[in-house]
Amino acid sequence: MPRFHNLISIQDLTREDIDLILARASEMEEVSVRRSNILKDKIMACLFFEPSTRTRLSFESAMFRLGGNVLGFADVAVSSAGGKGETLADTIKTVERYADVIVIRHPLDGSARVASEFSAIPVINAGSGSEEHPTQALLDLYSIKKMKGKIDGISISLCGDLKYGRTVHSLAMALLHYNVSIRLAAPPQLRMKPAIIEKMLSSGVDVTTVDSVEEGVKDVDVIYMTRIQKERFPDVREYDAVRGKFRLRLEDVSLMKKDAIILHPLPRVDELDPAIDSTPQAKYFDQVAAGVVTRMAILDLILN
Ligand code: NCD
């Protein structure tokens, strides 16, 4: 099997793999402007069983910039899985006959892995449950490297919903390959899973836990803010108890290092004040652009 067949979990990648993807993404900056035909005969199927704006459209934009073709559904209700109760296995065994690669987002943990087990063509995980979002972690690393010039040696604060947020889970696991210090800033109900903290500690990463936004943003190079994942709470009362409790306000920016950067996987709700958008620290829309070149690199490595 080639080195990059599927991309299911960030934990399946070595530091060497990650560095190769980031280097390829950097080369894609120029290709994304000039466009290319390197995936001219390839078809990407996007199967999105959950809402998405950036992940799906940036995968599609990446494919178009490389000359490839795209099909799929963005709303499960219009697919046979939603409307008629078709199994994931049957959906995959069908779509593999239409395309060269499957990009899948699904609400269940483990869904992308299951899809890959049924698929004869490569599968890319575009977000599975609350556990994994490997392509987001790669574009986050790419953004940090591009904006701060390095990943080794930085301090980063992961803020917000560390319990249900899949982006912070994958990013935390990716950061284990680097020499970084990590601050975990979350309300007590939304702290990082102990299993991930244990992995960080056993990898020798310097980790601290705080429970306020103010303590989260001070003295770090990167502030990674996240949305409280309303849709993942088993009980709406649990969500109501934390909603609006963890917000980055314009005045918090003055507590940050002058050269700190604020990232956010987006979408935001109320946790990131739009007034921050015009500060020099706000980099989340540049991070969106990093998503296109990173996904171009991933598609190229998997399909070529
Ligand atoms: C994230 C996701 O879907 O996990 N969005 C994204 O892919 N950029 C984050 C979120 O929904 O809060």
Q: Please, could you describe this protein's structure?
A:
This protein is of the alpha/beta class. The chain folds into two domains: 137 residues, Aspartate/ornithine carbamoyltransferase (Rossmann fold); 155 residues, Rossmann fold. Helix content is 40%, strand content 15%. The strands form two sheets. It has a five-stranded parallel beta sheet. Strands 2-1-3-4 form a four-stranded parallel beta sheet, with helices on both faces. Strand 5, helix 7 and strand 6 form a beta-alpha-beta unit. It is globular and about 55 Å long. The protein binds N-carbamoyl-L-aspartate. The site of N-carbamoyl-L-aspartate has 10 residues, from helix 2 and helix 7. The site of N-carbamoyl-L-aspartate (NCD) has 10 residues, from helix 2 and helix 7.
